[in-house]
Amino acid sequence: MNRNKVAVTKCTSYNTAEVSSAIKDIFAAHGGVRALFKKGDKIAVKVNILKASHPDKAIITHPMIVYAVCKELVENGVNPVIVESPGTGTPYTPESLRSVYKTCGYFDLFKNLDVEFNYNTDYTNVKIPSGKVIKYLDIINPILSADGIINIAKGKTHGFTYLTGAVKNLFGTIPGMYKAGYHLKLKGIGNFSEMLVDIAHFIKPRLSLIDAVVCMEGNGPADGQPREVGHIIASDSPFAADYVFCDMVGLDYRKNPVLLKSEERGFLNRDNIIANGKYNRITDFIFPDTAVTMDGFVNPSFLFKTYKFLFKDMLTLKPVINRNCAGCGICKKSCPASAITLREGSAVIDYNKCIRCYCCHEMCNNRAVDFHRGIMYKISKKLLSKKPE
Ligand code: SF4
Ligand code: SF4
């Protein structure tokens, strides 16, 4: 059985010298750039840009990490291409990609480094031979045509999948709005997590990094708070990278639905991880409000499953539009269930259609989507929520 290497490197700021040194250490721990890539290889660098946002908000992979990785590649004769298909609220067009890279501070930093940014928005429907819940998938062409992939995720909490890291970042290889269709087709966290595992196993990035210098805690992936964690994680397996990230922020991996599915399918084998580098486990990282629902997913008791089935609607947090709503319509475009309409300058949710995917919360730029906690949710949270182990 293959062993998975995970390098954990201390990095406490986005200072150029500190990040460059950490990235050099990471490549060295994996045998050097040339052990991973051949001279002349065209490598897709899949970044994590949910939406146009300043790096200080901790929503996106910090451009300094991407810059340091690309610099190492260029200096070793490898040709990186920066690739992203942002969240569903951002049109997947060349103009929009240009504007997103600019707002995220990528252009400023890359002025002195000759690196290609991808604007090709073509995609191909490909067969996923080992897919458990998806047999065919639309994947963006710059990923399919590359000689290899480096996956650089941001370490964040996530309302739907608890945490987002290396595995979830690869959902961004699906073109633009097509992501919403997969949310609708694979309702529920179990199926959705299986799909993320299918995608990560198919894409097989040669190296997966997690920017855990400053993570997001609370109601991520877009509405939480930045939290200094002080590390960069890198592995030849996205599953192993996520496992270490999960442990670093103090979460029992069995509460992470993606890792649970990865382990069930044999893609995560904790005994086969060779970890290089140390970290102190955080004990007070703040997880999303939706966490109590997620706890239900991993609670194996028949009684709890029955309880959750009966009270599903009351147990699951409801997205509620607040007074900040500017009527921009981004959430309407992002909603996979077409549950949102615009009325009198504000978004309105049809709860009969809503599948509780929280894409609206993720994509709103005005903090106008709250979570409504019903009485059953509050009781359940009291009874069932334990401090992360
Ligand atoms: S909830 Fe947010 S994204 Fe939706 S219309 Fe209002 S401001 Fe726009
Ligand atoms: S209203 Fe929000 S949570 Fe409900 S389906 Fe639409 S995007 Fe998902």
Q: What does the largest sheet look like?
A: 9 strands, mixed
Assign the CATH class of the largest domain.
Answer: Alpha Beta
| Name of the CATH superfamily of the largest domain | LarA, N-terminal domain
Number of helical stretches of at least 4 residues: 17
Quote the beta fraction: 15-25%
The averaged pLDDT comes out at 91
CA radius of gyration is: 20 Å
What's the arrangement of secondary structure elements?
Blueprint: E1 4-10, H1 16-29, H2 33-36, E2 42-46, H3 63-75, E3 79-83, H4 94-103, H5 106-109, E4 116-117, E5 123-127, E6 136-140, H6 141-144, E7 148-158, E8 162-164, H7 166-169, H8 178-185, H9 189-203, E9 207-217, E10 225-235, H10 238-248, H11 257-264, E11 273-276, H12 291-298, H13 302-310, H14 312-315, E12 318-321, H15 330-334, E13 340-343, E14 346-349, H16 359-363, E15 369-372, H17 375-384
Parallel strand pairs: 1-11, 2-3, 2-7, 3-4, 7-9
Antiparallel strand pairs: 1-10, 5-6, 7-8, 9-10, 12-15, 13-14
The structure holds iron/sulfur cluster (2 copies).
